[in-house]
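Dear all,

This email documents one entry for the complex benchmark we are building for the journal club exercise. For each entry we list the sequence lines for every component of the assembly. Then comes the predicted three-dimensional structure of the complex as a token string, followed by one or two observations. Please use this as the template for your own entries, and keep the labels exactly as they appear.
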Amino acid sequence: MARILPKKDVVIVGLGWTGSVMANELTDEGLDVIAIERGPWRDAPTDFPPSQMQDELRYRIRHELFLRPDQLTFTLRNKLDQQALPMRDWGAFMPPNGVGGGGVHWNGEMWRFLPSDFVLKTHLTQRYGAGFLPADMTIQDWGITYDELEPYYDRFEYLCGTSGTAGNLRGQIMEGGNPFEGPRSRDYPTKAQTQPFSHTLFAKAARELGYKPFPQPSGNLSTAYTNPHGLRMGPCTYCGFCEWFGCSNYSKASPQTTILPVLVRKDNFTARDNSEVVKINTDRSGKHATGVTFVDSSGETWEQPADLVILSAFSMFNAQLMLHSGIGQPYDPKTGEGRIGRNFTHQTISSVNGFFDKSKFNFNPFIASGSIGMCIDEFNGDNFDHGPLGFVGGGYVGQVQTGARPIESALTPPGTPKWGAAWKTAIKDNYLSTVKPGTGVHGSFYAYRDIYLDLDPLYKDRFGRPLMRMTIDIKENEAKQNRYLTDKFAEIIKAMGATSLAKTYRTAPYDATTYQTTHLNGGVIMGADPKTSAVNRYLQSWDVSNLFVLGASAFPQNAGYNPTLTVGALAYWAADAIRNQYLKKPGPLVDA
Amino acid sequence: MHKRNKLGGGIGAAALAAALFGGFQTASAGEIDSMNFTAVDRGRYLSILSDCASCHTVPQKNQPFAGGRPIETPFGSIVAPNITPDLQTGIGSWTDDQFDNAVRKGIGRNGERLYPAMPFNAYTKMSRQDVMAIRAYLSTVTAVYNPVVANTLPFPFNIRMSMRVWDGLYFTEGEYVADPHKSAEWNRGAFLVDGPAHCGACHTPKTFLGGDKTAQYLQGSPLQGWSAPNITNDTRTGIGGWSADDVATYLKTGHNRITAATGPMAEAVDLSTSKMTDDDVKAIATYLKSLPGEEKPQTAMAASSPEMRAGGAIYRDQCSACHGQDGKGVDRLFPAVANSSMARADDPTSVIRIVLRGARSVATDQEPTAPGMPSYGWQLKDEQVANVLNYVRNSWGNAAPAISPDEVGRLRASVAKRSD
């Protein structure tokens, strides 16, 4: 039997980016808020100090900051007729764990989605006709527009101190920025980061090819900044240990650097770490949440009653908790019916490594920040005519190299032996003169009828609950898109002066062992139609009106950008709806 | 309530009565009046100025003023007593005279001499009216049953009679007398510094008996594994390079353009100075800035020496990411070691300790970030710590006596035994 704790106004499940944003907004409203976090408490100066953080083996290879698969994992298969198998080590993505969530280990890319991304189905159908889309593609409009979200994009950008160059200021196209971006109401809070040599060279080559390169918007700051909460951040030092690592130089935006120090000073906020929520409880009607049940590190089960439940775990865990709690009809790929688990997506990633003449090029590639980079957006979304190309979607491409950490940056040109003296010589010869953009081709991943999440019929977790099963593959549309973008990207790398290229395309089957970003989306998607979405445009559950589900789980499909800024903006958007609509009149904010 | 019930019916009931009626009962004891808002509120503010909570409240225990916190002195620990209105274990049954004698004269309820861990030698500058206001405020806080054995000193310091001699040597009783030649602000500052805020308790060096070395007033002193810095206007080791605004900002927010409060001062900022009025922190700043520095000449170590060069290399690798190649740091985030009088202090205890153990700065409403410095003790050998600190202490125009590896080693051994 669970022991019952005193009731709170709000219980927040997961204290990452969205949980922190929501906790801060709702405590500002005067509500008594508790956050329950599965992983440990993490504080910047004590848990990732600069005296020890630059340790590639510990953090990158051994996954120090991430969920341990023996605590919780997933099963995975490519196709409906296959038996899914459990992931026993992480590869394609890195599930976050602990206070700060993915906001601790991320690179800090701060992209807005395109205005057309939010009305994708309508836009593509109007431009190319319904028959242009693959038959099994299940893309949808978001139920919200770019213009509605813009003020919340702005808030999250200013929370984080984002460094960038505006490309579209209130409708006016600005030199040096991304000319394809939606209009922004004001400039970035801080100027773009200074770019290292190879990134600058990429921009030059791109410009000469007729593109309009611009600096990647960055949550690693170019200069000192004080955010609206009075929290101070310092300039990035280009240490090159950002992705996979925490930052206690106070230069990477994270919940720890932008929200938590203010939140923990509030009397109406409490947090429990090392406590895993196992169920959202509902009353007999099934339409009203009464709180959550969680298990602490001693194995004790507790019930935390609350008037309002905020589900703000990582996207996949949001979907999993909905399924385990029996809230919302599970999605069935055969009928296309059901709300929870549908439109699961990832990101279509590839890269091109360029090898340069070492006597002419010394890139000092270890100088970088997590979201450093010069990019072009000519091939993102519907910024280009897909008519002759036979696919939809796209992405940004850019030299976004985040450093040259030695274990993963031991690169050799094609044809080099895999070991021995020749290999060693090639490593030495190429370390300083190789361009390794990492996720240089950052493509969209659209939704399909048979790519989804459900509960595994066989494998169980440590509590005896079914593991979540991922059914995911690379479809022909995404493979075509990636081939097109990768070739375009390779042309620019070649134009930089590379003597040889190592080009890798993303192809089927979906490979769980190689890293492809942690941008897993969907499963609890937002929308205007309760038949095809799990939450309404305010991220409020269609089934349980005092439950809001935040995060990338709400994305109906994924655009060709990193998701965090959109995730943060949606959290502020939902918080605004709760503060100004829901609390005044609790109940569904949109009639089903 | 569970704890009280376990203590037995009689005591538990009395404690409960005190909790419910404490204010009423003490109000009848004499000239204080817990129903007088003016006195209570004045007393509340005086208790902040006097930082009563620092010693008389155990941190994180949520029992304000219930005592029980050990106060570390060079002679051993003294446990701060319960000053809630509890009749048995607090001060609920004390007379006003007994309370006044304790606060301003160092004489306990039964005539025994108090140890100067209680800064009665500073509180004596307050008026009886001030002290009665504090009492009025304390009579309104929740009474807590919490017996405290105050005297845990070893022999011979546990003999309280010895304090008579100490009082004769070091204690001058008497209220603050304003200097008519100085401004009202200066006088307010002097009263606060020497009276309720008892700055000298940490910042004035002590004799072997723990009395103030008055000739070195506020020139810095070691305590609790730290060195409290010189807070006179000395250019190199004091606040000579700070403006009065810098001082006030530091006291109010815990941070300024040069440095941040850590260690025992972080607690003083949290509980006391950050809650002072703007006028009071300005008054303290005005007074401290008026105290002439010793201006002792000091020659910088030669930049070309092997120690300085090794230290510079360590600084570039380990320190410059936050503190900058130019030592200027980031405003109110990373201290400016190039301008830091603490870095240049003659007694380097605090800077060595910070490098070895790391330090967390204080969070305040105005400066909630509370950045921290990581520990390098696991990474740098004694010689390397000495080198990098000698580099910091003797670069960018800084000058300070050399630190030896042995000095680092001694401090490493002593801080290793500390729980804080």
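Observations: The longest helix of chain A spans residues 476-495. The interface with chain B takes residues 43-46, 49-52, 224, 229-235, 237, 239, 248-250, 261-262, 265 of chain A (CB under 8 Å).
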